């Protein structure tokens, strides 16, 4: 019998439900994809796109809470087994990065793809124990305000527009660049020796890479996407650069092979960079965005890392005593010691590459000085063709690759050197090499799309608009033009490792990245810095590259978290893309080569000489070169298969994990978003008419 007291609310029964019930909290896949239910309750999408019938609400049980492992409180038991409702969460405080005031916002459930799923905070189901937040993860959580804008991330130390002061900015900027040292300097350590360059050439190219990287990073943070992303020589350009270096017309060259091949690379990079700039600034990139989704980005970037398996450990095997130790150290630092914090910094995780390199290099130096790699009567400086003793022939390879005193790069490098444009000579332009690089610049743009989206979810208030993204791609094209003019050997693009570095260092301040870029320019003027990096033994470079390429593969596959990774559709598309990205290039690379073939290049460069023996053999030599080279590149095959299947096989937006970008009109109305992405010095007002490259 109901009570007559009007102040007491009647206890609702399990059926019928309340007439104004609010939507249930979205499930995990709905959070990731930004799905919003159209009716009260949660929608359960099946593979066929139908809506599953919702289960009836469970009748409360007054028994013990078996899930939590304890009995219900007395108040809950007296209420029919219902748990006492928790107090409402306090409003989220958001500090304006450039203002100084605070604003209170309501809580909402964000999606991992940058979209808000609802204005109500998710209520934990009854009887389930709250998850303890005992460890800091690298993929940072987010909170969203009631207007649909991502607010301050709880675990980020500094966000995009934060200006904490010169000392903190300098400290965090330094650690940010040191953690990405491998991505910045390892590429020239591969391509320069492949072009026939000596230690001095390697030192000069390293200094040039540091200079161009600092200059293009400043341009990108000011006039590009304005996200704190370091620009540099991406691994995306490494395989096509090696293919051009090993072109048949360069075999048997007389004179300075390095400068001749570098000028050919410069010409190809400049033309492809102009193509990328037109792609971005013309607005065509906004159209291509409809085809680029996580299921396309993931296998494409993963194929870049997997493509160098024939180079990695075979080079480590030239001195297992040093190379294996290097690999084990970076594994121990990045995995087993990653949670150890010193003065609030996870030094082993942040400085995995420089710590592993320093310890291994010191150990190799001690072994060299102790005579572990010295043999009586053998001189490492004598050419192998002039060695007569069988004893020396047996050990000469170990002496060359294990000793750390064989390089003269540090001694021969000057103290001061200013990198200048066209320092290797006037670029040489050939349409077939330029066409190959144009396709590669498109793959580089796909890589940057994933990096823009993932980094914006970490440091910015919302993802960029399609216009901001096109502006960033256009500026990357101009940056690669500068890289071609200065002669770095590769294009300049957003490094994929940026996302991992931001998540690990918790540093997303644009000012810190800009200060680090200025320091990078200063260091590039000191010739001894380039000489020191160029003197790193080849086996250590190969060991670090094994780790870097594995990281690149994993970072590419991590884009699948924005889609339904367990969907059979996505599993099949990614699986086909990865398998054929390895198998089809293997067919082209092995075509026409017999077991007894006398190759003119080392075995680890064999995949890059396909232009001379590929299956395309028409009467047009340039066409043969382009087709044989492009179809032997793993990332090109992965991209073609993934983009065709993902855009032709039916699938919902939630299943595909379509990237969510900010709407231009909504972004203009939100001051925080405008301050994140608008151009400085009121430059945006001059180009207000170009709406396809702005907010």
UniProtKB/TrEMBL annotation:
One Gene Ontology term, aspect cellular component: membrane
GO molecular function: transmembrane transporter activity
Transmembrane spans: 166-192, 204-223, 235-253, 265-284, 291-309, 315-336, 348-367, 512-533, 539-558, 570-588, 625-645
First-listed, main subcellular location of the protein, grouped into a coarse class: membrane
UniProt topology in membrane: Multi-pass membrane protein
Biased composition (Pro residues): 12-26
Subcellular location: Membrane
Species the sequence originates in: Actinidia chinensis var. chinensis (Chinese soft-hair kiwi)
InterPro entries (alphabetical): NCS2
Family: Belongs to the nucleobase:cation symporter-2 (NCS2) (TC 2.A.40) family.
Region of interest: Disordered: 1-129
Top-level taxon in the UniProt lineage: Eukaryota
Keywords carried by this UniProt record: Membrane, Transmembrane, Transmembrane helix
Bias (Polar residues): 41-51
Protein name: Nucleobase-ascorbate transporter like
Low complexity compositional bias, start-end: 69-81
